[in-house]
Amino acid sequence: MEYIYESAQRSYEDFASGRVLYNAQGTTSFPVRLASEIAQRCFQLLEKKGVQGPYTLFDPCCGGAYLLTVVGLLHGQRIHRVIGSDINAEVLGIATKNLSLLREEGLEQRTEQLKELLALYHKPSHQDALQSAGRLRELLRSSRVEETACFQADITQPEESLASCKGTHIVMTDLPYGDLVSWGGGSDEPVKDFFNGIHSILDPGRSVVAVISDKGQKLKHDRFQRIQHMKVGKRQVAIFEPI
Q1: DSSP per-residue letters across 28-66
Q2: Would you say residue 81 has pLDDT above 60?
Q3: How far is CA 123 from each of CA 27, 59, 131, rounded to the nearest angstrom?
Q4: Who contacts 116 (Cβ-Cβ below 8 Å, separation ≥6)?
Q5: Dihedrals phi, psi of 239, to nearest 5 degrees
Q6: How many CB atoms lie within 10 A of CB 5?
Q7: Cβ(99)–Cβ(150) below 8 Å
Q8: In this structure, is residue 47 part of a structural domain?
């Protein structure tokens, strides 16, 4: 894969799971550089359509909302709503905490927690985390994120709970691979049903879908046109537009 927007290597240690962002046991993190590259490709595709931001970003398989939070921190100036859902209710508490970091009050609360940990244990890791929190606070200065939300839902079985996601501009999700995280629910064709589920909340011509998966999953659907496809190590990334 050729990186267009994140072509220069740089440190992303401020976004490490468990540093400032909260870590959810049994969930996966995601390469920050790749997340930023995919997000910027989505922004560019929407702008070419004449759809100007700030945008609504939705991850229907959000887990602990690590991917959403990273994109929201790095590109908050282009986003105004960040929404996550997941079938696993147990991870949504961590998702809520991570999404709270996209607002000043949430990041301030996390900073105070880190100060308390430093005072108690005097660990260099807590001092490093405080420094990272300060740098993340600088990112929030230009953020336009006004709303964050997460809720329990099975995207393969669309429900009324998805009504709040109508008009989403960008769906961006890392599909379950079956290592740490597997598809829940009772769908026999979860990828197909995933596409059916998100189609109902998208406006053709005004939205794009970025799907990341292992290379074994077939990313295609007759209600979506694939406009980009990339292979990155063991992953594949496909960007679609609804038709």
Answers
A1: ----HHHHHHHHHHHHHHHHHTT--SSEEEEETT-TTSH
A2: yes
A3: 25, 34, 13
A4: none
A5: -115, 130
A6: 14
A7: yes
A8: yes
- Sheet strands (E) in 128-234: 147-152, 170-174, 208-214, 224-232
Buried residues in 45-63 as b, exposed as e (16+ CB within 10 A): bbeeeebebbbbbbbbbbb
Residue 207 belongs to domain with CATH number: 3.40.50.150
pLDDT band at 182 (very low <50, low <70, confident <90, very high): low
**Alpha helices per DSSP H over the chain:** 32-48, 66-74, 92-100, 104-121, 124-140, 190-199
Nearest by Cα to 162 from 210, 192, 194, 184 = 194
In a domain, 4, yes or no: no
Mean pLDDT of 122-147: 97
- Token readout for 13 is 């240690």
Look at the chain and report how many structural domains it folds into. 1
- In a domain? residue 110: no
Domain of residue 206 covers: 13-102+143-242
pTM comes to: 0.95
